[in-house]
Amino acid sequence: MASTLRNLRRRYFCPNLPVCGPARLSPGESRHLSQILRASPGDTVELVDGRGRRGSARFRAMEGDIALLEVISSQSSPARRRVGLAAPLLGGDRGELLIRAATEAGMDVFFPILGRRGTAGAEAGALRDRWERIAWEASRWSGRAEAPEILTPRPLAQALVETRAWPARFYADPAGPRPGRPPARDSFIFVGPEGGWTPPEIASLAGLLPLRLSPYTLHVETVALLAVAALANA
């Protein structure tokens, strides 16, 4: 754990990460580097851009509230199987927990679903902005070079249409088969509300593969974590 925390303190987001050469951190990241890490010129840090590129850089100096660095080298992460998740829109701590845990488990795309039995979507815009920040922080914590894409909330019917291009699609179903070996292709899974899918929703899921994640009644965020872990881990 101590090693993980050491690495975390030296890992920073740099959205415009160059292959090499000068780079600048945001004021927030710069403040952490200078005041919390107390970096000195010449110290080496790890940078990630949130889109799959990571690099090594030396801290040069502070220019006002901006940290100036020199990128020594950077490279893109190897291509890997992607995992998408659709789940009911949850507000408050529950929504934040879902985003954080699913990101750490390997989620690449999150599609919040507006459902008849889910949380209303009046605050959807503010939630999405907040969730994007949480996803970036969870990515940095877990050592990922890419942060998940947080999509705009949609009704289930529209989400099904917009995810048709995914090679494999599943839905969480306590009566379905247990997960086997994760598919060797991009996968998307739909998680329903705690009250269960409505009959029209069940009908709309025809053509997707059912997946049993637990024999127990679980909270949405727990099912979401199990779903992503089942599809992401080889």
Description:
With 234 residues, the chain is an alpha/beta fold. Helix content is 33%, strand content 26%. The protein is built from 7 helices and 12 strands. It has helices at 2-9, 27-36, 92-105, 124-142, 156-162, 199-204, 220-232; strands at 11-13, 21-24, 44-48, 53-63, 66-76, 83-88, 109-114, 149-150, 154-155, 168-172, 187-190, 209-211. The strands form 2 sheets. Strands 6, 7, 8, 9, 10, 11 and 12 form a 7-stranded parallel beta sheet that branches. Helix 4 (124-142) links the parallel strand 7 (109-114) and strand 8. Helix 3 (92-105) packs parallel to helix 4 and helix 3 (92-105) packs parallel to helix 7 (220-232). It is elongated and about 60 Å long. Mean pLDDT is 85; it is low at 1-8 and 117-121.
Concise synopsis of the structure shown:
The chain is an alpha/beta fold.
Fold blueprint:
Elements: H1 2-9, E1 11-13, E2 21-24, H2 27-36, E3 44-48, E4 53-63, E5 66-76, E6 83-88, H3 92-105, E7 109-114, H4 124-142, E8 149-150, E9 154-155, H5 156-162, E10 168-172, E11 187-190, H6 199-204, E12 209-211, H7 220-232
Parallel strand pairs: 1-3, 6-7, 6-11, 7-8, 7-9, 10-11, 10-12
Antiparallel strand pairs: 2-5, 3-4, 4-5
Whole-Å distance between the termini? 24 Å
In total, the number of strands is: 12
Number of helices: 7
Alpha carbon gyration radius: 20 Å
Mean pLDDT: 85
Question: What series of H and E elements makes up the topology?
Answer: HEEHEEEEHEHEEHEEHEH
Label the overall shape.
elongated
User: What is the quaternary state of this protein?
Assistant: single chain
- SSE-based structural type: alpha/beta
Strand content: 25-35%
Task: Let me know the largest β-sheet.
Answer: 7 strands, parallel
**In which range does the helix fraction lie?**
25-40%
Catalogue the unreliable spans.
Answer: 1-8, 117-121
